[in-house]
Amino acid sequence: QQQVKQSPQSLIVQKGGIPIINCAYENTAFDYFPWYQQFPGKGPALLIAIRPDVSEKKEGRFTISFNKSAKQFSLHIMDSQPGDSATYFCAANLIQGQNFVFGPGTRLSVLP
Amino acid sequence: EPEVTQTPSHQVTQMGQEVILRCVPISNHLYFYWYRQILGQKVEFLVSFYNNEISEKSEIFDDQFSVERPDGSNFTLKIRSTKLEDSAMYFCASSEAPGGKLFFGSGTQLSVL
User: CATH: 3.40.50.620, 3.40.630.30, 2.60.40.10, 1.10.3720.10. Which one for A4-105?
Assistant: First the structure.
């Protein structure tokens, strides 16, 4: 029940494309859903996050869509750039909890 | 932007040896964490620490692991007797509040031979 599933495992798009990464969770107590971006040799960095009281959040080229009833959320990257090539992790945590549960990651490659 | 710093960046040790991984969290943060990432796999929670005590820990964090905040700035992870399967990238993180934005360090790559 603590698991967060993520797909696809890897994704290749052309520059300007809109990669979509999907995550699903089981535990309805989760109430914070961040996305992290990780470049090789670096720690994950928070990209954008959402709480379950809204269905969409947009920051720049990054958008989270959240479907509470389906227990799914996804990351969309508009006008993707080669610099967006990285591994993306979705995560979730419990109310006031400190244990973030991470998805297995999606390796995104944006071709020039 | 303030950052979490970790040392060393790489650590090679023999199986059975003790290692200490060091972290300096962001100065006004109160919650500290260790996560690990085995090569190519997901980031796994190890432990969280608040007010000088462990607040949560995972099944991975067994008796071989311990954490300490020896002074006002450092936060350490000790592995008493390393095993081959402890080889991983260890990330320290900190946050202002529980469940809030996590700031990760760049990690310590631990290799157990």
Answer: 2.60.40.10
Quote the minimal CA–CA distance from A57 to chain B in Å: 16
Per the CB < 8 A criterion, the answer to whether A77 and A84 are in contact is yes
Q: Are B62 and B83 in contact (CB under 8 A)?
A: no
What span, in angstroms and rounded, lies between the C-alpha atoms of B65 and B59?
A: 11
Low-confidence stretches of chain B (pLDDT beneath 50): none
Inter-residue long-range contacts of B46-51, CB under 8 Å, 24+ positions, other chains counted: B46/B77, B46/B90, B47/B77, B48/A98, B48/A99, B48/B98, B49/B75, B50/A98, B50/B98
| pLDDT tens per residue, range A1-46 | 578 999 999 999 999 999 999 999 998 888 899 999 999 888 899 9
* Percent of chain B as helix, strand, coil, to the nearest 5: 5, 50, 45
Residues of A in contact with B48 (CB under 8 A): 98-99
